[in-house]
Write a structure and sequence with these properties.
Length: 1022
């Protein structure tokens, strides 16, 4: 064997690098052990929410402390070391994963100087936003297409050339194509900056090993937050724009209130006329609320303390119009800065009315903004849902006098009066502006200034005197956590574009622990069974293969750790599959050595020739698998991308350990003069001297396959698929009950709250159900002041509670980390945008994977017939797997959803099936050059007979590990494993009875290339 020195060198280097990766675990394990002790001491528990919170707090506090010092090299913090270790995905650890869409709609308006009044621009942007839900193009490309449809004679340059930031790139004569190019460059910069700032913001969240990645082609940011305990807090971090603004508060007087009364009457008359009523029509009865605030000892109104809230009936001639029926104006009892109050559910409607042309014309220099927190309730009374509305002085520039761009540092801490505040430091320009604002307010009878965050008033303090130096504090309804979070968000800065969650998944820690246990069980059993088989079948050579497999696992985990890969449940499936497929290289080599030994060669010559003659088949088989895995990695999202990475690492590692290291070990053993067996007594003559006319019955196998394919297509066309939430969009919940529940009763109870019949499936655990609904999945804004996912959770709770006996609480039910009781263990949300994106990605992945395989086989075998035979076999395999899933869902008793994991399984089946086919093709090519006098049919039959042992053994070992995965891998992976089981069986069949016969029938003459060239030369000479 040549190059032994190079192989040994790389082996030693890989072992050292891998060992270092594993050594990182020691100091981090020590730190985590200390965290366990701390959490137990502080909480008095060894598990539960309080225990997890204390443990996370300890790890957060030491995340930037050095826990490993390597003299003369480097010091490592806990965060550094965790980043160098294998990350566990959410399905194994619990936590939250989201896909964020960077919203470029407001970005375009901003570049056009916020020209929302331009009807053409507004129409083009709205069309682009609607198209984004069903397209994979980036937003600027969609805007360009929409603009072409609606622009008429208008040019984009007229809208964007007035922006000072674009004048160097755009002038009034610039073409639309030039403007679009500039907009795309600016949009790309904005998306990248949003991603960079979001990463910094997530670092402030205190999550260990967060995973953040950018899909720049689709303006998507993928975020995984393992172990996160508070999803609402995480959503704030991910979606808050952190747009900090400072405004002068405009005092409320009778003029403003009277103007609103007049305008409300006008709006009322307008609405009645539009409704077809007489303008004097009034409702019979109207109730209004009066809020009375408490007074201090000096008689001043305390706006933070409500004395009482009373309701009274107003006379018909006092009936409020559309505004005052929702909004209670300040009649002097709310202080001088509040215009009025409204209930949380009415805020959006009131804001829309205030933005109507009638009101906007009368308040040109004013901007209306709601307070961030509701008004406090009277002592002993339940919390109110009333929010105060401020009227703020809008500068002539149309922008705030001071923004967060001037903030240089932030912190949080208690004030002298005990309130928790966010402290701000400003740059010199901001300090001057702030000093000027506070001086004006102080001189105006201590008028208030308003501090806004993302359009809501978080603080409106009265100014007692000028505040020089640029230091100030924001006080509001903060606790220590919210103040710290706000300080951290402001420290990172404002996001240049808003982000919107279009896919969300939350997994409870208990479900993650269950997945880990089942995965480890499957991994150990599958690996053990493969080892036993290799020992039984190959004897002494089986020991070498075991060493290669163990080394393969060591290298796989080491490589995944060094890459910072997130290991998920599909990733563990990929490792198990890699174990099965890693045996393939050993089987190809060992079966070839057995052939050489049976032909009478010496052991050393048989080993040498066996390895040499196997390289071509091994390379071809593994390259095709790599092509499929690379396609999956490019088009997949989240866990599926992780599965593809594991598969690629496993293929490369398998070839290195089985082919190079395996040969190194075998030749080292033989050099010592010791014999090595490649069979045992029971296996010695298995599959030897096979002589079957495989091609004779090909028309029968064609017929069988045609029936199976036709039946599959009929099933797909009539029954369809059990589409997972990945492909249809919606909310998916896994709910664990502490009592026996009938699925039909649960379905009936949830139909009314959801407004439609949900999909409910039992999962493997007792009394655990997967509930899927599309209720409010298209809702983007708030509903009565609540986020859509919160409203859906409330509807879920209402239905489940009625089934459970009306003895549940919302807090306990929605606690994903609960250890007992009826509760949700995981939540997923997939919006229509990402669902369409996933469907398109699946089609592209399948199509491109098949194309790459076709081109590779054409390159390797120089005949299109080989490529076509392989593609027909792969199409045959895929259709049958699809047909079985179509026929079997809701009949086979386990989850058979078509989701991202299923698409990964189909592509893996394609890779596995082509692996089998390529080995047969490779032997046909070899025999054409060896048996030049034989006919086509004889050569093909001989090639299939000589490789059938490898085909059966590889399929058997792979099926062993996949079957273990199916039996022990948990409910969420059963469908994936079943698809692989079916695919392996069908792929083994098709490589012999479809792909090879097609090559036989499409090829008139199958001569060896060298023989054909020799005959051509002789003919020419004659």
């Amino acid at each position: 064997m040549q190059g032994k020195g190079i192989i040994k060198f790389f082996l030693v280097v890989m072992l050292i690098v891998t060992a270092v990766q594993y050594l990182y675990i020691i100091p981090t394990s020590g730190a985590e052990s200390d965290a366990d002790d701390f959490a137990t001491e502080q909480s008095g528990e060894t598990e539960g929410e309080d225990y997890r919170a204390k443990r996370s707090y300890f790890l957060d506090s030491i995340s930037d402390q050095n826990i490993l010092d390597v003299p003369g090299f480097k010091s490592f913090t806990y965060q550094d070391l965790k980043a160098k270790q294998l990350n566990l995905g959410l399905d194994l650890k619990g936590g939250m994963a989201v896909v964020l869409q960077v919203d470029l709609k407001e970005f375009l308006f901003a570049l056009s100087r916020k020209n929302k009044d331009d009807i053409t621009l507004k129409e083009a942007i709205e069309q682009a936003s609607q198209a984004q839900a069903n397209a994979q193009d980036d937003y600027i490309a969609l805007f360009a297409k929409s603009w072409q449809d609606v622009r008429g004679d208008k040019k984009l340059a007229t809208l964007f050339s007035s922006n000072d930031a674009l004048r160097e790139d755009i002038n009034i004569n610039s073409s639309d194509a030039e403007v679009i190019r500039v907009l795309r460059d600016k949009a790309n910069e904005t998306v990248q900056l949003t991603y960079d700032l979001l990463k910094k913001r997530i670092d402030q969240l205190g999550v260990v090993q967060p995973n953040v990645s950018l899909d720049a082609d689709r303006d998507l940011i993928l975020v995984e937050l393992p172990g996160i305990e508070n999803p609402a807090r995480a959503r704030t971090f991910l979606q808050a724009a952190a747009n900090l603004e400072f405004f002068h508060v405009k005092r409320v007087d009778n003029t403003a209130i009277n103007t609103l009364v007049t305008l409300d009457q006008q709006l009322d008359r307008k609405a009645k006329i539009e409704a077809g009523r007489d303008s004097t029509f009034v409702e019979e009865k109207v109730m209004v609320s009066d809020t009375i605030f408490a007074l201090d000892e000096l008689g001043n109104i305390l706006t933070d303390s409500i004395a009482s809230i009373t309701e009274r009936e107003v006379a018909p001639d006092q009936t409020a119009g559309p505004l005052f029926s929702l909004f209670s104006p300040n009649t002097g009892n709310l202080g001088e800065s509040v215009l009025g109050i409204a209930s949380e559910k009415d805020l959006e409607a009131v804001s829309a009315l205030l933005e109507s042309p009638e009101i906007a014309r009368q308040f040109r220099d004013v901007v209306f903004r709601w307070e961030e927190s509701p008004l406090p309730s009277a002592e002993g009374e339940p919390a109110t849902d009333l929010y105060a509305l401020y009227q703020l002085q809008m500068p002539r520039s149309g922008e705030a006098l001071l923004t967060g761009e001037s903030i240089t540092n932030t912190s949080s801490g208690p004030q002298p009066d005990g309130q928790v505040a966010v402290n701000l430091s400003m740059n010199s320009e901001g300090a001057r502006t702030w000093a000027r604002m506070t001086t004006e307010a102080a001189n105006d009878n201590n008028r208030q200034v308003a501090i806004l965050l993302d359009g809501r008033v978080v603080s409106a303090p009265s100014v007692r005197g000028p505040i020089p130096g640029g230091n100030t504090a924001i006080t509001g309804n903060f606790n220590v956590q919210t103040a710290t979070d706000l300080a951290n968000i402001l420290k990172v800065g404002r996001l240049p574009a808003r982000t919107q969650i279009i896919q969300e998944s939350i997994v409870g820690p208990s479900l993650g622990a269950a997945n880990i246990n089942s995965s480890i069980t499957a991994l150990l059993i599958g690996f053990g069974l493969v080892l036993v088989f290799m020992l039984f079948y190959y004897g002494g050579a089986g020991i070498v293969s075991i060493l290669a497999l163990l080394l393969n696992l060591v290298f796989i985990f080491g490589a995944l750790s060094s890459f910072g890969t997130v290991l998920t449940l599909p990733g563990i499936a990929g490792i198990l599959l890699t174990i099965g497929m890693a045996v393939d290289a050993n089987v190809i080599i060992y079966e070839r050595i057995r052939e050489e030994l049976r032909s009478g060669k010496t052991e050393r010559n048989a080993v040498s020739d066996g390895f040499s003659n196997s390289y071509s088949a091994i390379i071809d088989a593994n390259v095709t698998t790599l092509l499929v895995a690379a396609t999956l990695a490019y088009f997949g999202l989240g866990p599926i991308k992780g599965f593809a990475v594991v598969l690629m690492v496993g293929v490369v590692s398998s070839v290195f350990t089985a082919v190079l290291v395996g040969r190194l070990v075998i030749e080292w053993w033989l050099d010592k003069g010791k014999p090595l067996s490649f069979w045992t007594a029971p296996s010695k003559n298995l599959f030897s001297n096979i002589d079957i006319n495989w091609m004779r019955n090909r028309k029968i196998t064609y017929g069988i396959s045609a029936i199976l394919v036709l039946a599959s297509l009929v099933s797909v066309g009539t029954r369809g698929f059990d589409l997972g939430v990945d492909f249809r969009g919606g909310y998916s919940y896994v709910v664990e009950f502490d009592q026996d529940v009938d699925s039909q009763d649960l379905r009936d109870a949830l139909t009314a709250p959801f407004g439609s019949v949900p999909t409910i499936k039992a999962v493997s655990s007792d009394n655990t159900f997967n509930i899927v609904t599309d209720y409010l999945i298209d809702q983007t804004g708030q509903i009565d002041g609540k986020e859509a996912q919160d409203v859906v959770m409330e509807a879920l709770f209402a239905g489940v509670n009625s089934v459970a006996g009306d003895n549940l609480t919302m807090d306990a039910f929605s606690d994903l980390g609960a250890d007992s009781g009826t509760h949700v263990t995981s939540v997923s949300k997939v919006g229509p945008t990402i669902a369409d994106d996933i469907k398109r990605s699946a089609f592209w992945a399948g199509g491109i994977g098949l194309l790459l395989i076709f081109l590779y086989l054409l390159l390797r075998f120089n005949k299109w017939q080989y490529s076509l035979g392989a593609i027909l076999a792969l199409a045959h395999d895929s259709i049958i797997v699809l047909g079985i899933f179509s026929f079997g869902w809701a009949r086979f008793g386990f989850n058979m959803e078509v989701d991202q994991a299923f698409i990964a399984a189909i592509l893996t089946v394609i890779g596995y099936s082509i692996n089998d086919t390529v080995v047969v093709y490779d032997r046909i090519r070899e025999y054409l050059n060896t048996y030049v006098s034989r006919g086509k049919t004889e050569v093909i039959n001989a090639a299939v007979s000589s490789t059938v042992s490898r085909t059966i053994i590889t399929s058997l070992t792979t099926m062993i590990v996949v079957l273990v995965l199916f039996l022990f891998g948990g409910s969420s992976i059963k469908g994936f494993a079943f698809a692989l089981l079916v695919g392996i069986l069908v792929g083994t069949y098709s490589s012999i009875f479809i792909a090879t016969p097609v090559v036989h029938d499409l090829t008139d003459d199958m001569e060896a290339k060298s023989t054909a060239n020799l005959e051509k030369a002789s003919t020419t000479k004659a």
